[in-house]
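Data card: per-record layout.
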Amino acid sequence: MSFVVHNTLTRRKEPFQPLEPGVVRMYNCGPTVYGRAHIGNFRAYIFADTLRRWLEVKGYEVRQVMNITDVGHLLDDADEGEDKVEAQAKKEGRDPWEISRHWTRLFMEDIQKLGIQPALVYPKASEHIPEMVEMIEGLLAKGCAYQSGEDVYFEVARFPRYGRLSGNTVEELDAGARIEVREEKRHPADFALWKSDARHLMKWKTRFGEHGFPGWHIECSAMARKHLGDRIDIHTGGEDNVFPHHECEIAQTECFTGAPFSTYWMHTKFLQVDGGKMSKRLGNCHSIDDVVAKGYEARVLRFCLLRGQYRTPLNFTWAIMDESKSVLENLDDLAARLRRAMTGHGAAASAESGLEDVEQCQAEFEAAMDDDLNTPRAIAALMGLRSAVLAERLGVSAAAAANQFLVHVADKALGCIRVEEESLDAEVERAIAARQDARKRQDFQESDRIRDALLEKGIVLEDTPKGVVWRRK
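The structure for this 473-residue chain is written out next.
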């Protein structure tokens, strides 16, 4: 089965076909670094990472770029309000450059904890001003933009396809509803490519004026073009990026290059918390630190967010995190049991027994992932494999095949299962041996004491007809 993705641009599922055989150029909208990323943000970033992982499983070379917005993103996401980074700097009485560096560093630490693979490059908006000015100059020369004082606006009337991504066509947009009426604009829907404000601390001198800074939308167009070229295969983001951000990216990029910008546009749905919207006022914009403080590993959050298909609404609660932790531990246990079965422990008598179970699981997993990254179905396939292992239906050869699949396909795609064998330190090994000795002496009180002590350290022991097996809690 070919990989099929849902394209926001066409509103249907389409077979994935890159512009260059074997190579995928992918741009992911990254963070605006004025505060700590929260679990809702991470849903979009984990989706992008899972998409990349699955493309790599399928043999593609993925050239992934994720931007860092450190200037120009205004509070209302359009052309009004303060710069988000500068507004936060004022609140904290700090330099905006210091603010952006601080939150960028924490963001990079957070995504590493979540097992998100490093992108090819993380371009910062502030470091790509020449590329933005080049595009703005080109749009002015083509008559697709105009200067009003020291500001420069894109004229949406010059791009008839405006609104194709979001459905918000120029004719349907009501002045003063989603867009602000400004006298210097020829049409209320026109959006800023370059802004001027003498009070702005992060600013650059150009031919447009002395105190300028870029519009939010032009940043991503310029950075994508710089690092991936005029045309890319996939552009991702959260559903809130569809309009105005991605709509404006398409308009300005395609007017500048004269070619389609991105073939596929993919967007994640919002994450709800306790059945409602995330809100700083409600105190439910949880960070990685909040998750860890509750006693969860960061990988449990990753798994929790993968249990919902990226285009469907997903609810987050601490009870759901508990459930996710339990299911993930079962998948860790699957990996441990497969390793033991490869040596004959817990394996069926026939070495080839259970190969059909493994083949069925792999086929179901791959079909689910090929169907627009249907991660819930993929996880269900793995649980089916665990049932076969628990029933000792897999022989040594089948266990080896299943382990190969789990390590090189399933976990390579999901990125959160413990598939590597863990070594016990000498102290724990001695404790297990002492427990076995106590059992032989029928000193069950001592045996239970050692078992409970190991459990406190996160080591779960299971007594089976073929000996003691262990796993991390």
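Known properties of this structure: The mean pLDDT is 92. The radius of gyration is 26 Å.

See the next section for split statistics.
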